[in-house]
Amino acid sequence: MMKNSNNISLNQHTMQGSTLVEVMVSVFLLAFGVLGLMAAQIRSVAAISEAENRSIVAQAAENLADGMQINPEVVQIGSKAVVRRYPDYLTTQSITPNPTMTLPNPSWGSSWSATSSVSDISKAALAKQQLNLFNYSLNQIPNASNVQYVICLDNSNPAEPTMNGTTISGNCRPSNTSNDKTVIKVMWTIQSENQKSTPPVYSYRMDVPQ
To answer: CA 150 to CA 35: how far, in whole Å?
Structure first.
């Protein structure tokens, strides 16, 4: 009888030990699954944020391109080619994001008065106002820490912009032919919660229709 009692006690301890291991494994698997879900959620939020930012930049660039097309310079290249160019818009700018920035008031130059007509607005003044609105739109990018853009004349196969340190490089290489196109290139970085990590850099490019 004593032997049977020892066997029963040993079996009980074995069952208790097995149950504890099973619980620990279950807790580990549950924790691993929760961490996986959290990581997936973080990636999802980051993807949504990136899409929102890209949408803001794309809409701003499209609005600027529309404005540029009604304010071109028509030039002749060679003996026959007549193309539209946008010299008043060619620029490189760096923006310090300020979400509280107010919508800029139109400024048409010192020659403008209340009695002036639309035809009195200079092409340069119109371009300046449109660029101000473009800057205002780019200021709306959430959590952006550095926004820069280049509007340049580039060849028929424009290169993407790059960031050299903290300065944008438009990589604009016009061929000085009628095939060149005006391109809007934007780059921006997003503030990172980890100050030691390098903030992600995003870019967007839009060709202005000829």
So the answer is: 41
Whether the CB-CB separation of 169 and 161 falls below 8 Å is answered with yes
**pTM of the predicted model as reported, rounded to 2 decimal places:** 0.74
Which candidate, 205, 204, 201, 199, places its Cα nearest to that of 163? 201
Structure tokens at 113: 């008065």
Digit-coded pLDDT (tens) for 100-124: 777 776 665 555 555 555 556 788 8
- 115 within domain boundaries: no
What domain count does the chain have?
1
Q: Which domain holds residue 159?
A: 24-110+122-207
- In a domain, residue 12? The reply is no
- 37 belongs to a structural domain: yes
Instruction: Give CA torsion, residues 132, 135, 137, 142, to 10 deg.
Output: -150
36 pLDDT exceeds 50? yes
Q: What is the mean pLDDT of residues 131-142?
A: 90
